[in-house]
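Morning F.,

Quick status update on the modeling queue. The single chain you submitted on Monday has been processed. Sequence for confirmation:
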Amino acid sequence: MNTLADADALSGAHLSYLWMLVGADDRIKPDRLILRRLEGGLHRRVTTPETTRLITAAAAQLACTPRELDHAIWKTQRTP
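Structure tokens below.
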């Protein structure tokens, strides 16, 4: 494996999370907690690409990074 992009075993949320861990502020990890929050707020199903677009747009409006917003949502969803 020469680059992270060559990581065949990683895809989707796992690969996005790995990018986040190495400092990519423009990435989110659209896992079940993030999807659940968006679906609850929108009262409908959302796709992974739509989730990424919505979080990115909301982060721009809130003057934070998508990664920061992802983390804030994740923290609220994992706490009962």
